Amino acid sequence: MQTQTQTKDPTTQARKRKRLFLLVLCLLVTAVCLAACSFGVEHGPRGEVQRTDKYTFNTERRDIEARMNKDRESFRETLPERYHLAATVDVNPGSEADGITYEIILNDVRIPMMNVLQSFTLDSDMIHTLQAAELFNSNVSNTYETTMGPGKEPPGLSLSRSYVLKPESEISPEYLQNYTDVYVKISYGPEDQRTEEYFHLKARPSSRMIEYMKSWEG
């Protein structure tokens, strides 16, 4: 009896290896995607979602500056009804230079507010009193979204900035007349249905700030 030897087709073997390689590659890509979905979305201390919108420091600054230059009256002086909004100002006397700090406080939220962004600027005359290239400030550089609502964490959100005052000999008192004026932008909601609100607030000066300003009256 003769034994027949079956020879495998090299082309068939190559096709099988290629299919096996593609199968392994697909499984690997799927595993990486699932891992990214599981571990790459929420990394904040309270499980905050990572921001994916396109708002930047420059876009927010341009928006406020354009409104300040062309439509300053659109900054409302009436306070919002859906949340509490306030501003404070304090002075930090120093041996070499004095500092001044503004803080915007948003709390007592009465509605769901997704991805809350805060921005503010000062009266344009303040640029003559401060050692600063610009007056604008924003939390738009935050990595994670801040979502707020009744009974949810965080209960409030604040945004502050400290400026260094120029030497007293370089400051004209007239430029400090509007030092309590703060122009604020609050925006929230999904990117395609964004709510943007603009306010003109009077910052509440601390007792130390009030005493400090008395020196400019004489």
Description:
Helix content is 25%, strand content 24%. The strands form 2 sheets. A 4-stranded mixed β-sheet has the order 5-2-1-8. Strands 4-3-6-7 form a 4-stranded antiparallel β-sheet, with helices on one face. It is an alpha+beta fold and 218 residues long. A hairpin with a 6-residue loop joins strand 1 (84-92) and strand 2 (99-107).
Give a summary of the structure in a few sentences.
This protein is of the alpha+beta class. It is 25% helix and 24% strand.
Spell out the blueprint of helices and strands:
Elements: H1 10-39, H2 57-70, E1 84-92, E2 99-107, E3 117-122, E4 137-138, E5 156-164, E6 181-188, E7 195-202, E8 204-205, H3 207-217
Parallel strand pairs: 1-8
Antiparallel strand pairs: 1-2, 2-5, 3-4, 3-6, 6-7
Mean pLDDT: 85
* Largest sheet properties: 4 strands, mixed
The SS-based structural class is alpha+beta
Oligomer: single chain
> Which range best describes the helical content: under 10%, 10-25%, 25-40%, 40-55%, 55-70% or over 70%?
25-40%
Q: How many H/I helices?
A: 3
Number of strands: 8
> What does the overall shape look like?
elongated
SSE run: HHEEEEEEEEH
Strand content: 15-25%
Poorly predicted regions are: 1-7, 29-41
Output the radius of gyration: 29 Å
Distance between the termini: 125 Å
Order of strands, widest sheet: 5-2-1-8
